[in-house]
Amino acid sequence: MKKKKKILIADDEPEIVDIVKKMLEERYEVITAYDGEECLKKAKKEKPDLILLDILMPKLDGWETLKKLKEDEELKDIPVSMLTALPLTPEDTKNKPIDKIENYIVKPFRKEVLLKKIEDIFEREEEAKRIYEQLKKEVGEETAEEYLRLVKAINRHRRLIGVIIDSAAEEFKQSVRNLILSQKRLIETMKKRAEEIEKLLKERKKEK
Question: Less Cβ around it within 10 Å: N or C end of the chain?
């Protein structure tokens, strides 16, 4: 039997934690925390596969908690999705490490939406790891590491673009479009390099 993936929910509202836990516990092992400090402790102890992190929390807010997670060598590779009561505006994310999150989820949300967002993270991550292992074996660790970094960045940017488009108010649409075009160009550059690495892997396999 396949081992259940582990998800840590960190939110200072017990009713939200309870709702999210009920939505997820059939498919995943769920761990709970009620502030930023507890989230960091539980993450260290449990090493979850994903963290759902509320932005507004006591002791350490979500952004500060995220910063500390990404600075920790043991925890920095754990994907993080932010939970927020309102769609984030450019002002909300100014000087915030938004490039470090996988996506954000606006409360309240339906179970199907939450599961879909989580499954997307896990499926793409597993695919990237599978190709990473093949590259490491066939081409070398340095190229494999480059590939993994590229694919993680591509997936993160794609998700964030989707979230921004879905949540942008009408007055932000034009500036959002400009941002999206810029991001898409960046993604295409990274995607091209990732495809070059994948092609290299196929060529190595053919040589055998």
Answer: N
Q: Which residues contact 138 (CB under 8 A, 6 or more apart)?
A: 201, 204, 205
Rg (CA), the chain: 18
Domain that holds residue 25: 1-109
**Do 200 and 134 touch, CB atoms closer than 8 A?**
no
Q: What is the CATH number of the domain that holds 8?
A: 3.40.50.2300
- Do 34 and 56 lie in one domain? The reply is yes
pLDDT in tens, 102-155: 888 888 888 998 999 899 899 988 999 999 999 999 999 999 999 998 898 888
The whole-model pTM stands at: 0.78
Distances (CA, A) of 81 to 7, 119, 140, 180, 195: 11, 12, 31, 20, 27
Are 200 and 146 a contacting pair, CB within 8 Å?
Answer: no
Per-residue exposure over 138-172, b if at least 16 CB sit within 10 Å of its own CB, e if not: bbeeebbeebbebbbbbbbbbbbbebbeebbeeee
In this structure, are residues 1 and 43 in contact, taking their beta carbons and an 8 Å threshold? no
**CA count, 13 A, side-chain hemisphere, 96:** 17
Taking the C-alpha atoms of residue 120 and residue 114, their distance in angstroms, rounded to an integer, is 10
